[in-house]
Amino acid sequence: MKKIFTGLAAAIMCLTACFAFTGCGAATYKDLTIVEVGGETESFGIAFRQGSDLTRKVEDAIASLISENKLSALAQKYGVAGVNEYVPEAAKNEASEDFKNVSKKGKLVIGITDYKPMDYKEDGGSEWIGFDADLAKMVCAKLGVTAEFLEIEWGNKLLDLTSGRIDCIWNGMTITDEIKGAADVTKAYMENRQVAVVLKSNAEKYSSVDKMGGVRIAAETGSAGEAFINANPSLKTGLVQVDGQSDAFLEVMSGKSEIAIVDYMMARALIEG
After folding, report:
1. pTM, rounded to two decimals
2. Tell me, what's the pLDDT at 269?
3. What is the phi/psi pair of residue 43, to 5°?
4. Angstrom distances, CA of residue 74 to CA of 121, 127, 264
5. Concatenated DSSP letters for 41-104?
């Protein structure tokens, strides 16, 4: 979220946090810790337009990669837990021309956000890497096209998909009833859960959901973290919407919010990685 800070102290605080995010690696997050909030296990899937034949073709490609033990190797590389068994379930939708059109243009346009360890860039790098980014490249190679990554605003993901701006949403996307009602979604290929991130100095103060009411809690707009906050009456009045999960971390590091609700895998990668 782009904001205008007033006052020298606020400017210094913001710049310090921003430099930490861009140049200090894991040490950036040494003052943060993860607090479990009892979030339910979530399943990650890939969303395509309704009636698309791409959904089944991508599922078939993932199943092939699992049989070749490439998914498990990728999961180990990025410290995540992918599935070990995968039987494609999506309809083939043979009347769809989505795959034909993607093949014609030679690329699959994938909507993502900066979300380590799923999709991110190394410091100073220009290439998108991560579990999802690398998996997408492997899948696209099997489909005979190139993976093109387009950074989107997560809250607009379904609009970008249905309008044709992107061909799919592939970014550690939690499968929800809202998503399934508006798009075709692959079978889950990974699981995740929501956790709180706080300053270590506040770990005891905010050690449970019962203690988190009445304070500012940051979450990415349209994310599972935002849904978790809104589902808890004692938390929803403190919701601070931000553009990305990295912004939620920044909110806590800068002291603008006391808590962030984010994906466990991202929190683990940044804080414990």
Report:
1. 0.76
2. 84
3. -110, 135
4. 17, 17, 18
5. PEEEEEEE-TT-SHHHHHHHHHHHHHHTTHHHHHHHHHT--B-S-----S---TT--HHHHHHH
